[in-house]
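Quick one: C-alpha cells for this chain, please?
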Amino acid sequence: MAQATRLVIFDCDGVLVDSEPISIEVLVASFARAGVLIDEAGAYRRFLGRSLSTVIAAARQEFGLDMDEAFLERLRQDLFARFRADLRPIPGIAETLEALEAHGIGWCVASSSHMERIRLSLMVTGLLDRFAPNIFSAAMVARGKPAPDLFLYAAGQMGRRPSDCIVIEDSPAGIEAAKAAGMTVFAFTGGSHAHFASHRGALEALAPDATFDAMADLIHLVAKE
C-alpha cells in the first residue's frame, strides 16, 4: 500500500497534550467534594480514555454519585482553568507532525472528550491550527471508546479505509476501540501518567502493534507499516 494513503488518527489527552494528570487530579478532587474518595490509580483504571457519558454512568453505578449539571459545570470550570494555566503539549509532537507532512501522511484527532475541551486543549498548546478542521469527538457518534464508532467515523470523514489507518492511543479503551475498528494501533507511553506499572501492563495485555514512549519515534514506526 502506498505510504501516502496512510492516515494517523491521534487520541488527544495523553497523546497530543499531557493532560491526563491534570484531568485525574481535578476529577478526584471533584469526587472528594461529593464525599467519594478514590485514589489516582483507581481513577486512571476506571476512567482513562472514557467518554464523559461513560464516566457519569460509572460514577452512578459504582459510587452512587449523581454527576448532575451543577457538578459537571464546576468540574468543567476547574478543569479548564487548570488547562489554561498548566497544560503543555507532548514533547516532540510539533516536529512529528512536520515529519508526517513531509512524508505525505495525513492525520486527524479522534477523542473521547467533548469538542470544547479538545479545541481548548489544542489551542493552549499551539496545536489547533495543525488539526482543525479534522477534529472528531465522541459526541459525534452513538458509542464512545471502547466501541469502534469514533475511529470508523473519523476514517470515513477523512476518506480512508480502516486498513489505511494507524491509531495512536494511550488508554486500554482506545486500543480496544482501534482493534475493533480493524485499524493498526500504536500504544503511546510517553505521557506523565504512564508511570503506573498497572497502566503499562493493561496496555501490553491488549497487544498493540507497537509501543513507544518518545513521540519522535512515531515517524519511523509509521514508515515500517
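The longest helix spans residues 69-86.
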